[in-house]
Batch of 4 targets.
Target 1
Amino acid sequence: MWVFLEMRTILLIACLTALYACNNQDHPIQSKANNPYPSYVSDLLKQIERFPDSAALRVQVIDTMDSLNLTKDALSQIDSLITRDPGNYGVWFRKGELAIKLADTALAIQSFSSAAKIYSNPDVLLTIANLYAAQKNKLALELCNSIIAQKPDRTYIAHSYYIMGLYEGNMGNTKIAIDHFNSCIQNNYFYIDAYMEIGWIYFDQQKFEKAKAVFETAIAIKPTEAAPHYWQAKCFEKLGQSKEALNAYQLAFNLDNSLREAAEAISRIKATKK
C-alpha cells in the first residue's frame, strides 16, 4: 500500500553533466543469443559500447529496460553509473526504485540509505521509513518522528503520521494506529489512504457501522475511487442491507470493471433475490 512519493528528483540530471574516467572494466550488457533484446534496445547497447562514459545513454537504456520489465538488466546499468559516480544522489534513488520492483527490500533500503547520505531530505527518508514499517522495524518511527521534529511542510508531516500508523497497524496496535491516521488527516484532510486504513481496522474489528461511516467520508472526498465504494458495500452486506450493498458494489464495478470481487458480489446478491 505504499502509495507513495514517486520522486525522480534531481535525478539523473547530475549524471548527464558528470565526466567520467573510463577504465574499460565496465560491463555493457550484451544481447542474449537465446533471448535477444528488441532491436532498439540492442542499438542503444551498441551505442554504449562505443561511448561507455555517456551517462545520458545509460539513463536512456535504464528507462527503456525498466519499461520492458527488464529490471535486473536495468540494475546492471545503474551499477555502471554508480561505479563512475558513487556520489550521485539520483542514481542511488533510482536503484532503490528498481529494487522495490524486484521486491528486494534489503537492496532498496541500502540504496535509498546511500542516497540519504548524499542528500538527506524528507522524500528519501520517508521512502526508507515506509520500507521499515512494512518490515515491522521500529526505525520507521524514529525516522518519522525526526521528520516531524523538523517541522517541514504539512504534506510531509501527514505522510510521516501515515507511515507511523502503518507500522503500529502492522504491530497490532490498532488504537495507536488510528490515532496516527487521524493525525495524518488533520494535516491533510484529503489523504484518502488514511481513511481507508481506519476503515479497514474497524471492518476487521467487525465494527461495520463505524467502518461504513469512514468509507462514506472517503467517498465524499474522492467519489471516483472504486475502493471506498467497494468497502462500503461490504459493510452494507455485513449489516444485512443487501439493496444498499448491491448499489455500492455496482458503483465500484462501474468505476473499475477489473474489480472481480465486486462483480462476484453483485452476482451473489442477485442470486439470493431469485
Target 2
Amino acid sequence: MGQIYSILKNYCGNSLVKCFYICYFYTLSMEKTLVIIPTYNEIENIEAIVNVVFQSALKTDVLVVDDQSPDGTGAVVKKLMQNYPEKLFLETRAQKEGLGAAYVHGFFWALRRQYHYIFEMDADFSHDPNELKPMQELLETEADLVVGSRYVKGVNVVNWPLSRVLLSYFASVYVRVVTGMPVNDATAGFVGYKRRVLENMDLNSIKFVGYAFQIELKYKAWIKKYVIKEHPIIFVNRERGNSKMNGSIIWEALFGVLSLRLNKNRFLKKS
C-alpha cells in the first residue's frame, strides 16, 4: 500500500481532485471483458465452470443469466458471488424463454456497463474456458466477431453420437449454401463480440431462440461487413446434466435460415 501511495503522490501531488480524475479516466480507458453464461438446471456444472473461467488466462467478469432454474442453480451462483465480489454477477429472469432471449438480456446488461469484449459460453464444459484468451486476441487484432469453431479444421467433436455430429456438420453446410456466409460453424455457441457489433444490431428484433439464434447474429454481423474469424476448438459433449436440444430447435434452424436469406435486403436497409 505504501508503494502505491508513493506512486499516486508523485503523479498527483497533494491534489485529491487531480488524483480522482486520473483514476477515473484510467478506468474508462480499460477495455473490460464479460463472459455470459446462460443457465437452466445447471446445478451440476455452474460452480465448476465459473471457477475454471476465473482461473483461465483471460482477465474477465462473468454474468450468469438464469431462467428461474428449479434445481437451485441461481442459489449456487449467489453463494459463489461471495468468492468473486464485483467479478461474478447474476441476472435471474422471470421465466424460461430460451437461449436467444437469455443472451439478448445479457448483451443489454453488458452494453449498459461498458464492456468492450463480450463472450457467449455454455455452462456444461463443452466450451473450454482456456480458449477465451486466444479468441480475445483475435478480437484485439483482426476480428469483430470470433467463433470457437468445431469445423474450421476438420471435425473436432468428442463424445457425440455420429447422428448428432452429422446433423450439426451438415446444418453448417446448409447455412453456407443458403446464405453464402463464409463461416464453417454457423451454429456454434462459443462466440466473442466487440461491443460495436452488438451496439449496431437491433437486438430487440432478434427472434430465434436456439441454433437459429446463433446463425441469426452471425449472419446479421456478416451482412453489415463486420470481420468474422474462426478459432479452432475441440467441442466436448457434456458429462453432467441434460442437453436442451429438442426437435423444435432443429426445425427452427432449418426454416429460420431460409427466413434470414429471404429478408436479407430488409436487414441491409436497417444497416
Target 3
Amino acid sequence: MPKQPNTLQLAGSAVLVTGASTGIGAATARALGAAGARVGLVARRKELLDQVAQGTRDAGAPDVEVWAADLSDLPLAEQVALEAWKRFDGIDGLVNNAGAPKRKHITRLTTEEVESIMTLNYFPPVRMTLALLPLMRERGSGVIVNVASLAGRVAPPREAAYAGSKFALNGFSEVMAVDLFDENIHIRAIQPGPIETPIWGDVPGNEKAAYDGEFFPPEDCAAAILDALTGEGFERYIPSSLGDVVKMKAQDVDGFIAGSAAFARHPEAIEHV
C-alpha cells in the first residue's frame, strides 16, 4: 500500500527551522520566505538570527518569529518547539538543521567530546520531534525534515563523533518513516555533502577536514529541503551524485574502508567526488 501523498503547500504554512542563523538554515529561511511560508527561526546568536529574519521578511514571508536558544539545553529545545506551535497555531513543517562539526582522529577523541556532539546534533532533533509529533498526529498532518549528512551514510576520516551523531539521526528518521507510514506524517532525510558553510572552516577544537575539493552553495541544500517539505521520497543527497557513493559502499564495504583509509593518508592522490 503506498504512503499517503504529501499535500503540504508552502504558501501560508508554518515551518520551524533550527540552525537558522547561517549556512543551510539561513538559505532555507529565505527560500521559505520567497515561497510565502510563515517561518520560525531558531539559533543561538540573536544578532545573526535577526538579520536572517529580516532577510526572510524581505523575501516575502508574511510572518516571521525568532527564538534565540541553545538547543543543547534539551528541555529548552522542547520548550521552543511547543512555543512555536502555539505562536503559529500549529507547525506544518519542522526542519531540524542545527548542528556542529567534530573532526578528530579517533586516537585523540575524548568521551566528553563524543557526548557533547550527540547533545548538539542528535538529541535536540529528537526532543523537538517528539514534542511536536503528538500534536501533528492529533491534527492529522505534518512534515519533519532532518538534515543529516553524507557523513551519516558514509563515514569520513577523523569524524567518528560527527558521523556517529548523523548515523544516529538517519536511523531515527528511517524508523520514524516506517512507524508512521500509515499516517499523514511525512519524514524526510537530507544528506548534504560538501556545502559552503562555517563547519568546514577553522573551527576551534577541530582538526583539518580531509576533503578539500569542490563545495556547493547552501542554496542547493535549501532547494532540496523545500522539495522535501512538499514532495515525495524519503531521502535527498546534495549534490544528487553522492547517492552513487553510498551505493558503491554498499557493494563493497571492506573495499570502501580501505579506500577511505588511503584517502586519509594521501587525499591529493584520490579524485574528489
Target 4
Amino acid sequence: MAYLSTDKKKITVNTLLQMKANGEKIAQLTAYDYTTAKLFDEAGIDSIHVGDSGSNVVAGNADTLPITVDEMIFMARGVARACNHAFVVCDMPFGSYQVSREEGVRNAVKIMKETGADALKLEGGIEILDTVKAIIAAGIPVEGHLGLTPQSIHKLGGYGLRAKEEAEAEKLLADAKALDEAGCFGITLEKVPAKLAKTVTESIHGITIGIGAGPYTDGQVLVYTDAFGMTEGFKPKFQRHFAELGQGFKDAVSAYCKAVKTVDFPNESESY
C-alpha cells in the first residue's frame, strides 16, 4: 500500500525512497523554530528543512554565509523536538565542511548529536565527494544540493538560473550521479531548467527535491515565509503564495495596538 501522508508514523530515509518508488510527491517546507515546525508537523508536512536561509529569515543577513554551526544547532534542535512525523534535514553552514574532510565529519557529528535532526544537507558536487562519503560512513544520512548553491553566491555572481548551458548541465548531471553513487539519499535541485531536473530525477536512485526546478522532481521545497506571503517584494517566477500571512500579521498587530490604547484589552473577563 502506498505511503499515506495522513499516517503519523515518523518519516525516515526509507519512507522517502519508497515514496519515490510509489510515485508519491514529497512536500517539504523550511522552518527555524519549535512553534512553527510543530504547526507544520501537525498539518502533515512530509519533511522540514532547517535551512541556512535562517541567516536571511531569522537574522536578517543579506546572504547565507554568516550563519554558524551553533546557530544552525539552536534552530534545528527546536524543529526536531517539534516533529513527531516529519523528516528533519539540517543544512551544514558555509565553512563547516569545506576546510577538510575531518572537520566536515566533526561538525556533522556535532550537529546530529546536539539537534536530533534526521539528516544533513551539503552544497556541492564532486568537489566535496570525499567529505560526503566520510560523513555517510559515520552513519549520517546526507542530502546533496546542486544548481544554484547560495553558499557559493559570490563565485556564481548572482541568483540567476543555473545549468542553462550544456557544459554546466553535463557537470550537474555528473555531480548528481556521483553523489547518488556515494550514498546520498537525495539531492536538492535549485533554480535549474525543468527538463534537466527531470533527467536527474530519472537518473538517480535517491530522491530529488526541487525549488525553482519544475514539476518533475520527486518533491518540492519552499522557504515558508516566502510561500506564505511574509517576505515583501520577493516573488520570483517559481514562487507561489499559498497564503498572505504578512498582511494578516500586520492586521493582528494593529488590532492589538488599538485594543491596548483604547483600554479595550484587557477587559473584565480577561482580568483576575
